[in-house]
Amino acid sequence: MAKKVTMQKIADHLGVSKFVVSKSLSGKGGVNETTRERVIQAASQLGYFTQKNAYVQNIKRSSQGSGSDRNKQSVLVLMPNIRSQTQDSLYWGKIVDGIALALDQEGLGMVIVSEHRADNFVNILNPNGLLGLVGVGQISTSLLLEVHRIGLPMVLIDHEDPLIPSDTVFANNTDSMNRLSNHLMATGHKLLHFIGNIRYSRSFRDRWIGFRSALEESELKPPAGDDEMLQLEGMDDAIIQEQFNQWMAKRKKAKTMPTALVCANDFIALTVSEALKEEGFSIPGDISVTGFDNIEDATRGVPPLTTVHVPKEAMGRAAVEKLLNRIHNPSAPLEKILIAADIVHRDSAAGPQS
Questions:
Q1: Strand 192-195's sheet: what is its strand order?
Q2: For residue 177, with 0-12 CB atoms within 10 Å meaning exposed, 13-18 middle and 19 or more buried, which class applies?
Q3: pTM for the complete prediction?
Q4: Scanning 49, 87, 197, 267, which has its CA 20 to 30 A from the CA of 224?
């Protein structure tokens, strides 16, 4: 029989005091974020959270009512203001619109929180007035631990945390990118390159996997994992363009420019398209460019962008439906819901010049 994983065992593993571990796992102040993250990760790796009664829920929630009581409650939408995750975003904003519509149809309110620090987050929570949480985009492990600690049901959209169990909702990124890449190869492209940091998010990584598997199935060699275009820093257009220009200059000098650029999202695709045009490349005459997400700006590109339509509002609605199901069936197996996404053919992609 496996030995119980105690706070002391975690402390010994990390070389810190049991007091530090207790503070970190209870969500109390007095521990910096870096230490808290280390404790959470070690606790998960050692199996602490998989034990029954692993930690005491310090915040008690009143029992959920039904009927009119339920209609008086709200759902917390947590969207930390990082990586351009705001309601004004052409991507994230549409997801929030879907959440709001689904909650309104259920007669439920919505409270949006953009806090990204765990120690501040716990102070603004009133769990007794909340049915559950829908997390949108990247959220730190320490924040999710706070939600998990108080027993608030949650569903995450476009994000998952290997340390915190939850239901999740994603677009079917891998299959969609696989189909888009196969379409490009069917039109004659053999020199394709993926543009986007594959460590930026789970969605970017899954899109890279779909691209890579399509090339491997056609016995074409994908870019190496250490290629600089797979490690773009941030999502600032000026930084992306600068890094892409450096990469493009090397490719032009070596005469190894690809005939198609498969970008991790529309924002990257539109940014590199401008850089290509400034260097005198014709799109799609000299090089095809594709995106992913189908944000509104994709139609305004010159030429309009071939992309994958992610049904963003549908992802929001699916998350609300899953959350309400989870509330009524708390012991049901966790689910990862994949929403189908379709290719949108526009003028930025065509067969390569012979």
A1: 192-195, 260-263, 288-290
A2: buried
A3: 0.81
A4: 267
